[in-house]
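Ticket opened by: R.M.
Priority: normal
Category: complex prediction / small molecule

The reporter submitted a protein together with nicotinamide-adenine-dinucleotide and asked that the result be attached to this ticket for the collaborator who will pick it up next week. Submitted input follows.
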Amino acid sequence: MKRTIFIIGLGLIGGSLAKSLKNDSNNYIIGFDSDMRSVELARNNNFIDASCEDITVSAQEADIIILGTPISETITILGKLNKVSYDHEVIVTDVSSVKTPVMNKAKMITNKNINFIGGHPMAGSHKRGITAAKEHLFENAIYVLSPAESCRSHFVDELEEVLRTVKSNFIVLPAEDHDEMTGVISHFPHLIASSLVHQARKWQHTHAYIPKLAAGGFRDITRIASSNPDLWQDIFYHNRSKMSQLLGDWIAEMNELKDLIDYNNRHELTAYLRQAKEYRDGLGTSKKGAIPAFYDLYVDIRDQPGAISSVANILASAEVSIKNLQILEIREGITGVLRLSVPSKDEQQKSRIVLEKSGYELMLAE
Ligand SMILES: NC(=O)c1ccc[n+]([C@@H]2O[C@H](COP(=O)([O-])OP(=O)(O)OC[C@H]3O[C@@H](n4cnc5c(N)ncnc54)[C@H](O)[C@@H]3O)[C@@H](O)[C@H]2O)c1
Ligand SMILES: O=C(O)C(=O)C[C@]1(C(=O)O)C=C[C@@H](O)C=C1
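Result attached by the on-call engineer:
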C-alpha cells in the first residue's frame, strides 16, 4: 500500500533519509525546506516525488512526517503541526541530536491524531546540506527511537518498518539516557575538537609552521571541528547542563593530568595512557556510528571506476580476507578514503606491505 512521507528539512540528514526512502516504491515523498535551492535539487534529482506548496496541506496528506530540521526549528514546527486538523492518525518523528527538549515539546501535543516518536540516527558528517546527503549514510548505524508516552507500540513497529531502507539498527531509549550518552560520546568531543583547533591557531602566531606540521593525528581528532557552527551551537544549547557537567569533569581530570606531567609521574601517566588504549581498543567494531575497529586500514583512493576493485584484488592475491569495507571522506582535500577491516593484526600488516608496494598511500587505525 502506498504511503505518503512528508520530510521537512532536506539537508544532510533529511536529504539522506529521502534518498534512502525512495528505494521503496511504496513511498511517495513530499519534501519541504526553507531553502528553495535544496527543494529544487531534491526534486531535480528525484530524491522526492513532490515539493510542498503548503505545510498544512502536505501534513494532512502525510502518513508519516519526518522533521530533518535543526533542533530549535523542530520544536517550533512541532507546535505548528499540533494545530493541523488531520482526518487520520499520523506518525511524526524527528532526527534531532538532543532528545529531551523535543520530547518535552511532544508532551505538550494535544492533537490526538499525532503519534510522536523521537528519532536520532547516530551517523552523520561534518558537512551540511542536501549536496552532502548520502543514501547509505545510516547503514549499520544505531538509530535511536524515543516514543512519546502516549504513543502506542505498534506505531514504533510501523516506523521501523518504514525506515528499514536506511538499514540501521534501531534501539529504543528514554530521551534523558540518550542525551547523557550522546553528551559524552558525541557532543562533548565536538567542544574539545574546537578547543584544540583554537589552541593550534593561537600557537601559530608565534610558530608559523604549525599548519604544515598538522598531520594525521591532529586532523583525525579535529575533523569534527569543521562541522556546521550553527547546528552545533544549537546542540550545545539544548544539552547545556550535561555539557557544563562534562566540562567540569574534564577540567578536573586535566588538572590531575597536569600534576602527573609537572611531577614527572611517568608510571602513573603510562597507566593512564594504557587504560585509555585498552578501553578505546575494546570499542572496536567495524559498524558505522561506532569507532573504527582495531584492525582497520585507511587507503587513499582516486575517484575513478575500478578504484575499489583494484585494492580488493591486491588483497585477494595476498590472501587477506576483507571483513568490512566502507568509503569515507574523512580527510580534507582527499577525494576518497577506503576503510577496510581485516580479521587480524598480521593481515593488517600484510595488507600494508602489498598495498604500499603497489603505490597506495595508507594509514593503519592503530
Ligand atoms: N550533522 C550530523 O552529523 C547529524 C547527525 C544526526 C542528526 N543530526 C540532526 O539532524 C538535524 C539536521 O541536521 P543536518 O546536519 O541535516 O543540518 P543541515 O543544515 O544539513 O540541514 C538542515 C536543513 O533544514 C533546513 N531548515 C532549517 N530551518 C527550517 C525550517 N524552519 N523549515 C524547513 N527547513 C528548514 C535548512 O535549510 C537545511 O536544509 C539536526 O537536528 C541535527 O541535530 C545531525
Ligand atoms: O561524523 C560526524 O561528523 C559526526 O559528528 C556524526 C555525529 C557523531 O557525533 O557521531 C554527530 C552528531 C549526530 O547527532 C550524530 C552523529
